Automatic annotation (TrEMBL):
It comes from the Eukaryota. The gene is LOC106156123. It comes from Lingula anatina (Brachiopod). This is Probable 4-coumarate--CoA ligase 3. Residues 5-92 form the AMP-dependent synthetase/ligase domain. GO terms for molecular function: CoA-ligase activity.
Length: 237
């Protein structure tokens, strides 16, 4: 039996849980977007859990620094760029958008943050526009979500950035606890702080909720959570 995952990144934690439930399942995931005619990276038989696989034939990829645009090396996080025959010609009647997405060397700037390892397996970290900017540091919400999902009392989680005058933005987590669990906000905050760098701590707090809003394809609707958070902050003024 085989299964594949797409649309949103499949965390290593969730992949392992699926494999525990269905031991004989050959689970894989890949990566693509409309602008590259569906796929650019696909996991093969040598899949590393959590990765989005390796490059398809005749496809190139590089990771570039978010500030300088310079190419980065192994296990360095930056924006994923793709080049190959499957890349679109451009957006219909929108040359400005095309220019901002495909550079003069033919590289498609995906807007996704990722890295690759020594075996050329690629890993997605988050969307560039969703990075939380804390005192000049880049905090990927998906990284914190993966940490939260590894807690045995958490069934689902989402992280957003809250505006903060001193820091710019601070991470806040929305967590769906396991039914009947006695886990507390302090438990969750401590669990995360012990596993991440100091600038990635949940300084915006933890909010327990019944569900995480998601699109039909399974992507977290962070905008809804941000609207909820902003309404809450305004009510406190």
């Amino acid at each position: 039996m085989a299964g594949s995952s797409g649309a949103a990144a499949l965390s290593a934690n969730l992949a392992e849980k699926v494999q525990e439930k269905i031991p004989n399942l050959l689970l894989r995931q890949g990566y693509g977007l409309t602008e590259c005619s569906v796929a650019a990276l696909v996991a093969g038989l040598e899949w590393k859990v959590g990765s989005v696989g390796t490059l398809l034939p005749n496809t190139e990829a590089k990771i570039i620094d978010l500030k300088t645009g310079q190419p980065l090396g192994v296990n360095q996080e930056g924006e994923l760029c793709i080049r190959g025959p499957q890349i679109m010609k451009g957006y219909l009647n929108n040359p400005e958008a095309t220019k901002n997405t495909i550079d003069n060397e033919g590289w498609l700037h995906t807007g996704d943050v990722g890295r690759y390892d020594e075996d050329q397996h690629f890993w997605l970290v988050d969307r560039v526009k969703e990075l939380i900017k804390y005192k000049g540091f880049q905090v990927p919400p998906a990284e914190l979500e993966n940490v939260l999902l590894s807690h045995p009392a958490v069934t689902d989680a989402a992280v957003i950035g809250l505006p903060d005058q001193a820091a710019g933005e601070i991470p806040r987590a929305y967590v769906v606890p396991v039914p009947g669990s006695s886990v507390t906000v302090d438990d969750i905050e401590k669990f995360v702080s012990e596993r991440v760098a100091p600038y990635k701590k949940l300084r915006g707090g933890v909010v327990f909720t019944d569900r995480i809003p998601k699109s039909q394809s399974g992507k977290i609707l962070r905008r809804e959570l941000k609207h909820h958070a902003m309404d809450e902050l305004k009510a406190k003024l």
